[in-house]
Each structure stands twice: as structure tokens, then as C-alpha cells.
Specification:
single chain; globular
């Protein structure tokens, strides 16, 4: 993902992309600790993509005269995991979904 692609996204889509990437990073770290991760370079790639997204967010906040993390705080509530487009790791596997189903799925 390059910076020009981020410029074409709206504020909400940018925040949702960041939140999805953070979920993907969490899954990759989980896989690394359980020796299930084959490509460790993907962690570095995701971290750099998150940094690019946060830079784009801060640039927009400064242009609009908003305080730090205002975009993230205003659009965080509308985020649903997997809705942010093509998540690299977690969108297809949904490891957190499986864990929550095992823990709370039989209670209803």
C-alpha cells in the first residue's frame, strides 16, 4: 500500500483500514508466538502500513484544524471487523471470531 492510495480514501475508510490492520497485526503476532507464522516479514510490512495510515490521518487532522486522534475517535464506533476491505491476515481466517464463538457461542 502506498501513500497515494491512502489519499483517495475517505476519513472513515482510512480509520477503518487502520483498525483492521491493527487486528491483522495482532493475529500475526499471535501466530508468531505459536510458531504458525511462515513469513515473519509480513509483521514489518503491516507495521509500516499502519504508520503510513496514521501519518495520513494526522495530515488530514492538521488540515482540518482537529486535535490529535480526532478522526480515529470519531469513526472508531462504526468499525466492524472484516468490513474494512481486504485485511491481509484476519479477514479470511477470523481467529478472534472462532475464539469468541467457543467462549460465548453456547450461552444463548
Amino acid at each position: 500500500m502506498n501513500y497515494n492510495e491512502l489519499a483517495s480514501l475517505g476519513d472513515e475508510a482510512l480509520v477503518h483500514k487502520e483498525l483492521q490492520m491493527e487486528r491483522d497485526l495482532l493475529e500475526l503476532r499471535f501466530r508468531l508466538k505459536t510458531n504458525q507464522l511462515d513469513n515473519t516479514a509480513s509483521i514489518t510490512k503491516i507495521r509500516k502500513d499502519i504508520a503510513r495510515i496514521r501519518t495520513a490521518q494526522r495530515e488530514r487532522e492538521r488540515a482540518q484544524g482537529l486535535p490529535n486522534k480526532a478522526l480515529r475517535n470519531s469513526h472508531r464506533g462504526s468499525f466492524r471487523a472484516g468490513d474494512a476491505g481486504e485485511g491481509t491476515a484476519a479477514s479470511s481466517s477470523g481467529f478472534l471470531k472462532g475464539i469468541t464463538e467457543k467462549l460465548g457461542g453456547d450461552q444463548e
